[in-house]
Amino acid sequence: MEAHFSSNELIDPRLGSNFTSEGMKELVGLAFQCLNPSSRRRPRMRLVATELDRILETEMSMTTFMGDGTAIVTLGSQLFTS
Fold first, then answer.
1. How far is CA 48 from CA 13, 18, 34, 40, in A?
2. Cα separation of 64 and 82, whole Å?
3. Whose CA, among 18, 34, 56, 70, lies 20 to 30 Å from 26?
4. Rounded to an integer, what distance in angstroms lies between the CA atom of residue 44 and that of residue 30?
5. 81, 19 in Cβ contact below 8 A?
6. Distance between CA 53 and CA 67 in Å, rounded?
């Protein structure tokens, strides 16, 4: 049985729009893989860590603007803050 959720049901409203939709889709997809009832179908932690790093790197590259020698990070950087 496949569950369907809207982004409003899955995303903490305190994040606002401080992330890209692509990054959030990837993060939610990875989370669902980790929730698979079959332990054999769940990704190994090494893969999860690698995917999280990749998602973060993509978010940062999509939301980092260089100006006057200083990097300004906005939007997606909030996806990985606590």
1. 24, 22, 8, 14
2. 19
3. 70
4. 11
5. no
6. 25
| Distance (Å) of CA 30 to CA 52, 54, 55 | 8, 12, 10
- The number of angstroms, rounded, from the C-alpha of 13 to the middle of its chain's C-alpha atoms is 15
pLDDT (0 to 100) of residue 60: 81
Q: Which two tokens stand for residue 62?
A: 């999509």
Q: Which residue has the higher pLDDT, 10 or 72?
A: 10
pLDDT tens-digit map of 1-17: 566 666 566 777 777 66
Contacts 24+ apart (CB under 8 A), 66-69: none
**DSSP letters spanning the chain:** ------HHHHS-GGGTT-S-HHHHHHHHHHHHHHT-SSTTTSPPHHHHHHHHHHHHHHHHHHHEEEETTEEEE-GGGGGG--
CA atoms within 13 A on the CB side of 58: 15
